[in-house]
Amino acid sequence: MGNRLSAIATRTGDDGSTGLGDNSRVSKTSARIVAIGEVDELNSHIGLLLCETLPGDVAQLLQSVQHQLFNLGGELAMPGYHLLKDDGLLALDQALAHYNAHLPRLKEFILPAGSRPAAQAHVCRTVARRAERAVVAVAQSAGETLRPGPQQYLNRLSDLLFVLSRHLNLNHGSGEVYWQSERLKTQQDNTE
Q: What predicted TM-score, i.e. pTM, was given to this entire model?
């Protein structure tokens, strides 16, 4: 593949518009561009998570996710194209089943805390949810067409990132930080 980016500062976006892969120009505030930005931010946060010391299998999984997210962003940037791999959703489902099988049952909601890698996985999870909402906004926008794959991928990825945060806390010897709800406190007080 040749060098695709020959000029970074083109100045064509100075008017508040940007180009899509089909050579059309849209506002930088359009739902599609917002969704592309959210997916890009998610990919960047996953890159930051990969800077942490992670189990090899988790690192390999997250690197694969980064490639899929790049495909997803490309699909958003090129209306009508199908770049996100169909097997990507299946891989997320398999990873969810694998990592969730070894986790203890939750007693209460957990806080996004514990070890540093787990906390960063929680940041990724929240950004994935925001990216998902942005993709849903594209799909629901008048005049836009978007297949369900990107939305489904982001939904499943946010679930996986939650499970991975729990897995990473266990892997790093950190306990989960449970939310100290009044309901739970009342139940505990009543059983004592």
A: 0.84
